[in-house]
Amino acid sequence: MEKASDHLNITPQEKVDFFLRTSAHAQNEQNIEAKLSKIIDEIVRFTAADQGYLFMVENEEIIPFIKRTRNGTDVEQKKVTLPTMILIQSFQANQIFFVQDAQTDERFKTLLSVSAFHLHSFLCIPIFVNDKKEGLLYLQQTETKEPFLRDHLESIKVVMPVIGLLLENMNLQKDALEKGRMQRELQMARDVQNGLIMKEAPHYQGWKTAIYWQPAFEVGGDFYDFIPISEHLVGLVIADVSDKGMPAALFMALTRTTMRAVAMNRKNVAEMITQANHLIYHDAHENMFVTLFFGLLNLENGELFYVNAGHNPPFLYDREHDTLMKLKPTGMAMGVDAQAKYEQKKATLREGDFLFLYTDGALDAVVRNKVFDEKELHAFIRRHRNADPQMIVNMLKEKLYAVNSDPSYHDDLTIIAWKRDGKEKTS
After folding, report:
1. Given the DSSP bridges, would you call strands 303-309 and 315-318 parallel, antiparallel or unpaired?
2. How far does CA 224 lie from the centroid of its chain?
3. CA 372 to CA 358: how far, in whole Å?
């Protein structure tokens, strides 16, 4: 039903002055939020609204970030009364609500918020720019019973594109700042990781070592380490952290530092990993863990004491018996359970034997339309068991990254081939 107030008009000069003032604010203020605040003040004064709100979109939800009164001040938090259901309905349906008497309007009079907040008249206008939701403008009368006029609505609609563009620009600025922050964080993560990863394989008399390490993205979760414990003892670590980016880099640093600390205690290997797991568990962020293989190798007699904490099983090739054995997990991933137990195992590398370690990036590639899984990896290593460690690593790398492999699978990839060869001398 048409109300008497519908016949009230705002003069053309008042409409022009309103548009000119809002346009001037859009151009004069340097800070976008200040511009928007000034424009909302103009709208509130123009409509004589008790309160005016501008909502921005965040994670598909509308968040009030400008809240103004007719006196040109911010609405006190205790006086913020918003009909949430009405706002959400307007925003989601892209529907303008122009309500002059909410207490009698059949669509809204039964809503609890209308009666509880003494809502008399309100205006709700979704803000879109190029079909993208940017925000919502909401005006309400709760203390004043004077309704909004249709001329108010039409005049405000004229300046809505300006508000929409300002909101879009503000969001673009926020995105640019966030992108810059993420790039800085990524560079810091790269710096942390680069400080942890050895640039080349270490050389030990009587042993040949080949390594390949490649993160799938800028900062990966794989790492490895060779820990010199004494003249004849070396600790070998290969690990895969559960996360990426800066959290992974920091967790990687924590794990490396912890492993180097416990390795110097000269304890049973299982005791080392148990102690390291306890420390990592209490320092790790929630839901972060690391799969890790740690081996303590005697370079003189080839004795290897190891623990596999939930990591992909390394392969040990025994030349004398021409067998390829998997060094299966002897405990769970580290950082999951502070009370986890680990079992130490022993193996011996004689001349011609080698250890092949890897992370899960070596598995699940699609090569020639066939999944390269653990079975395929086993067959590959066995086929090339007599090759030089560097050749094995190079051939596997080329196979996984060949033009006929599926690039979509690519994960972080670390490969270590460590062969006992009495002929090699220290370089």
Report:
1. unpaired
2. 24
3. 14
SS3 19: helix
Q: Phi first, then psi: give them for residue 182, nearest 5 degrees.
A: -65, -40
What single DSSP character describes residue 204? B
The type of residue at 232 is H
Residue with tokens 């090739």: 317
Q: How far is CA 30 from CA 53, 54, 91, 166, 245, in A?
A: 21, 19, 29, 12, 35
Mean pLDDT per segment of 10 residues, for the chain of length 427 residues?
A: 54 87 80 91 95 91 92 91 93 94 94 92 93 92 92 91 88 79 73 76 91 79 90 94 76 87 85 93 82 96 96 96 96 94 96 94 73 89 94 90 54 89 53
Return the sign of the alpha-carbon dihedral for residues 67, 72, 74, 80. Answer: negative
| Amino acid identity at 298 | N
> Tokens at residue 157, please?
């609609």
d(CA 210, CA 418): 7
Q: Residue 250: what residue type? A: L
Which residues does 268 contact at the CB level (< 8 Å), separation at least 6? 305, 344
CA 309 to chain centre: 26
Q: Which two tokens stand for residue 36?
A: 């928007």
Please state, in angstroms and as integers, the Cα–Cα distance from residue 361 to each residue in 310, 358, 390, 425, following that order.
15, 8, 18, 32
C-beta separation of 49 from 121 below 8 A: no
291 CB neighbour count, 10 Å cutoff: 23
- At residue 396, the 3 state secondary structure works out as helix
Locate 373 and state its tokens.
């899984």
Whole-angstrom CA distances from 397 to 171, 260, 362 are 43, 29, 9
Q: State the Cα–Cα distance between residues 240 and 221, nearest whole angstrom.
A: 5
* SS3 call for 37: helix
178-185: which pairs have CB atoms within 8 A and are 24 or more residues apart?
185/245, 185/246
Tokens of 212: 């390949």
| The amino acid at 261 | A
